[in-house]
Every structure is written in C-alpha cells, then in structure tokens.
C-alpha cells in the first residue's frame, strides 16, 4: 500500500483518514469533530470514543470508570490545546503542516477517494451504505478490544470483549448490550476459572437464541509446557437469570490444542466443533441430554431447528437431528466447500470449485479465505436446485451468514486483489436469496468483517486497530429489492 502522505493514515494503514488543514480558532464553528481525532484523545485519557454530537468530542467511560461525556481536549504532546470541535491532523508534524489551501498528496486504498481525490469524509456514527436505501449506525457498546465475536437478535447483542486498555492482554468476558435501551451488562466474567488459578481465559464464539447464549471459553494451562496447549469449555448462559452451565470441558494434555468453536445454538440444540479428536462436530440437546457425533475433519457448524450443517471440505453436510441421518451436498466437485449457513429453505456456503486445486489446501483459504477464488453458492431444500449466487467478482471471503431472505459475506472485488491482498479493502455485501439480487452494504475505506444477518439487517465489524485488536460494530438495514 503506497501512501504519499503520512497524514492520510490514522489507523495503522487500514483506512483512509481525514485530510484536513491545521486547526485555527476560526475553524471550530464550521468544522465538525472527527472520529479519529476524538477517539485518539479519549484513549489518551483512559476513556473511549463516545460521539461527535454537536461538533464536540465526547468520551465514553473507559475501563478505569472515567466520567462519560467529558469533552476531550484534542491535542498532541507539545501542541497547544484546541477546541474540541476543531479538526486535528494527528499524524502531521509541525514542519509538515500546510496552509489550508495546500493540496495534499494522498493515495486511497480500494478506490474510495472523494471528488477532490482525497479520502472520503465519513460521519463517525451514521453512514449511508453502498446501495440505495442502506443506512448504517455505529453501535455504541463503549468497549472495542477483542470485539470480533458476537451474535445479535432484534434488540439484543451478545459480544466478547476485554475491558482493559491496550496493550495489556487480559480476560475476554461475555457481555450483553440492549440495543433498544443502550444498557450494557456483564454476563460472564469467567471468575470461576480465575478462582482455579487459570490466567486470562477467553470467551469466544457466542451464539444467541432468544433467552439463551452458548459460547466457548479457551485458556492456556498453567503447568510446565502448558504454554503450548489449549484447554476449553462449552458453556450455556440464560440472559434473564444470569444462570451459567458448563456443558463440556476439554482439559488438554502435553502438546494438545483442545479448542471449542465455532458454536451454534438453536435451543435446545447446540452444535460445536472440538479439536481434541481430529476436529469433530458434536450436537447436544441441552434438555434431554441426547448427543450426536456428526462428523470429523470439519471446520464449521451451524444449527437451524433440527438441522445441523457442517463442511468437511469436500462437501456440505446436512445432519437431521430428529433422525440422526445425514445428506451430502455439492459432493464430487473440484476443490472445497466451507462455511455453510442455514436460512430455510436455503443452505448457502463459500465454494472454491472455480479455483486451482492447491488453493483449497492453504491455511489462509480455509480460515480467512485469502488468496483464493471463492464464490457463494446455495441450495434450495424444497426445489432441490443449486444456485450460483455470486461468482466471478473477485473473492467472497470469510464466513457467510444467513437469516430469512438474506445472506451476507466479505468481498474483495473493490481493490483487495490490486493491493496484493493487503488488509484494508474487504467490504460487506449481501444477496437477497429469493431473487438473487446483490446489495452492497459498505463502501467506506477500511477493513469490514464478520457480518451477522438478522431480521432484515446485518451487523458487522470494522477493524480500527490490528495491533491493539480493536473493532467498531455497525448495524445496517437491508432494504427489500
């Protein structure tokens, strides 16, 4: 990624920043607060970005419990304080400062420059999406370290996060956020594991269904050689009561990586993969105790009603939890298939049949779908017809998720390829399953990941700092075509 000016990158080179002139007393009334400047100052104060309401930088409470709505003094060491409404170029040194009329030489990744050739100016909290009618709002959860695992239903978001400032790596806890009231609640702080002497356990892969959430917990054992091992648990929590059950525990031996995850819940059935015995997918009815071993050598799992879907690379597997029987889809085709999603009557997945044979054997293809030719295919379980939904438009990456009439996925067609697959150019798209019509959700500079479709909407994350493991969440509507 070539950057002719340091001033265009404020977030580790993953996004275009704001191109602005140095602040002056006359700028403040006319220039609104910017996300990058405000967030940088809030973090320096031990707080988090709150909003730019009224053109003023407001900070949210940080991990130390600092006051909310404090107006940040947007400045850098050695600089005089400026009004919070000023636009500050935090990456430009004094000798690089230019007059307001000077042009700025910029290079915007993913062809996302404004009309003047500089980076797009983006509202920090509310944005129009890439297709007509798409509108997105930032979800103000106030915690953003490690927020790359989440699930959502109307009004309720569950997510994992570290409530400590960077660079410390601490326990990743499970939280609830009530999207209608703005209330945030700690659901599981993993203190029971801390009482066992387990250091910094990590809650991962929450799956939400009404009043229940199933999730994994990982940790490194505290014994000689344990740093090369992973132990884990499968847990189930009830939102209304706070009750937490440990459904399964996998203690590792020397050299064993016992990961649990991904996890999928459609109560009372929970599906999960564990890596103790060759990446095995299990299903458990938490009310009756009935349990299946569904498949081995698998990566993914999702559950809808009494159907569990997984993939073993060669095919998509549909497992009937009522009868214990399975069906294989898209078998005997070139290369691999991964990441199935269920939305009756559809099964949707990432398909590599158009790629070279060796691509499907790459770690990066399986886990992050980079450097591969990936397409989106679907199968209608009523008609028995397979549909190529998205093919020939670059790479459809990462996991695909589906709900109702929509499926969503990461996509690199807008510049990722040209940048030799550097991070910074993945966008989110969605396809309307009944019509096959595609909608572009995001069209903003940056790295957008992990879409979750729900109730005609899609929740997604924006990577704001790779080194500090920080993300923002955006909630977008999906207008009917």
Structure characteristics:
481 residues; mainly beta; Methylamine Dehydrogenase, Chain H; 2 domains; 5-stranded antiparallel sheet; 4-stranded antiparallel sheet; 3 helices; 32 strands; 4% helix; disordered N terminus
Q: Which term fits the overall shape?
A: globular
Number of domains: 2
Within CATH, the superfamily of the largest domain carries the name YVTN repeat-like/Quinoprotein amine dehydrogenase
CATH class of the largest domain: Mainly Beta
- Nearest-angstrom radius of gyration? 23 Å
Please outline the major beta sheet. Answer: 5 strands, antiparallel
Strand order in the sheet with the most strands: 4-5-32-31-30
What does the model show?
The chain is mainly beta. It folds into two domains: 20-103, no CATH class; 128-477, Methylamine Dehydrogenase, Chain H (7 Propeller), CATH 2.130.10. It has three helices and 32 strands. The strands form eight sheets. It has a five-stranded antiparallel sheet, with no helix packed on it. A four-stranded antiparallel sheet has the order 6-7-8-9, with no helix packed on it. It has a four-stranded antiparallel sheet with strand order 10-11-12-13, with no helix packed on it. β15 and β16 (280-285) form a beta hairpin. The chain is globular, with a radius of gyration of 23 Å.
SSE order and pairing:
Blueprint: H1 35-44, E1 48-51, E2 58-60, E3 70-71, E4 126-128, E5 135-138, E6 150-153, E7 156-161, E8 173-178, E9 183-188, H2 191-195, E10 202-209, E11 212-219, E12 231-238, E13 244-250, E14 260-266, E15 269-274, E16 280-285, E17 291-295, E18 300-304, E19 307-311, E20 316-320, E21 325-329, E22 337-343, E23 346-351, H3 363-367, E24 375-380, E25 385-390, E26 396-403, E27 406-411, E28 427-432, E29 437-440, E30 447-454, E31 457-465, E32 470-477
Antiparallel strand pairs: 1-2, 2-3, 4-5, 5-32, 6-7, 7-8, 8-9, 10-11, 11-12, 12-13, 14-15, 15-16, 16-17, 18-19, 19-20, 20-21, 22-23, 23-24, 24-25, 26-27, 27-28, 28-29, 30-31, 31-32
């Amino acid at each position: 990624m070539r950057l002719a000016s340091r001033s265009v990158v404020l977030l580790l080179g993953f996004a275009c920043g704001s191109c602005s002139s140095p602040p002056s007393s006359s700028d403040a009334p006319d220039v609104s607060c910017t996300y990058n400047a405000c967030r940088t100052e809030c973090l320096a104060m031990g707080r988090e970005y709150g909003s730019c309401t009224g053109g003023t930088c407001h900070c949210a409470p940080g991990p130390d419990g600092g006051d909310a709505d404090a107006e940040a003094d947007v400045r850098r060491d050695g600089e005089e304080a400026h009004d919070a409404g000023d636009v500050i170029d935090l990456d430009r040194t004094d000798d690089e400062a230019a007059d307001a009329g000077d042009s700025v030489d910029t290079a915007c990744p993913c062809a996302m420059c404004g009309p003047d050739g500089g980076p797009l100016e983006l509202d920090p909290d509310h944005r129009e999406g890439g297709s007509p009618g798409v509108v997105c709002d930032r979800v103000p959860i106030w915690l953003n370290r490690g927020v790359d695992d989440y699930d959502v239903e109307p009004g309720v978001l569950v997510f994992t996060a570290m409530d400590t400032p960077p660079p410390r790596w601490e326990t990743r806890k499970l939280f609830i956020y009530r999207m209608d009231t703005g209330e945030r609640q700690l659901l599981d702080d993993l203190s029971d594991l801390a009482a066992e002497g387990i250091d910094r356990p990590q809650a991962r892969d929450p799956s939400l269904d009404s009043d229940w959430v199933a999730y994994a917990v990982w940790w490194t054992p505290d014994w000689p050689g344990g740093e090369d091992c992973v132990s884990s648990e499968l847990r189930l929590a009830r939102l209304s009561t706070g009750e937490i059950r440990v459904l399964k525990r996998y203690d590792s031996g020397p050299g064993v990586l016992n990961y649990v995850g991904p996890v999928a819940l459609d109560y009372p059935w929970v599906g999960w993969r564990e890596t103790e015995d060759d990446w095995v997918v299990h299903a458990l009815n938490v009310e009756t105790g009935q349990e299946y071993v569904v498949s081995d050598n698998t990566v993914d799992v999702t559950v809808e009603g009494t159907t569990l879907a997984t993939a073993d690379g060669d095919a998509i597997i549909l497992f009937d939890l009522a009868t214990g029987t399975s069906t294989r889809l898209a078998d005997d085709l070139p290369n691999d298939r991964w990441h199935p999603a269920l939305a009756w009557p559809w099964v949707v997945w990432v398909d590599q049949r158009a790629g070279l044979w060796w691509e499907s054997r790459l770690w990066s293809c399986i886990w992050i779908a980079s450097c591969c030719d990936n397409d989106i295919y679907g199968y209608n379980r009523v008609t028995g017809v397979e549909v190529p939904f998205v093919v020939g438009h670059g790479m459809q990456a990462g996991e695909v998720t589906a709900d109702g009439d929509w499926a969503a996925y990461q996509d690199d067609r807008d510049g990722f390829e040209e940048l030799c697959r550097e991070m910074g150019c993945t966008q989110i798209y969605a396809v309307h399953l009944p019509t096959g019509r595609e909608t572009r959700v995001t069209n903003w500079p940056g790295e957008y990941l992990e879409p979750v479709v729900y109730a005609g909407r899609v929740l997604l994350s924006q990577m704001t700092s790779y080194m500090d493991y920080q993300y923002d969440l955006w909630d977008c509507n999906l207008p009917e075509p």
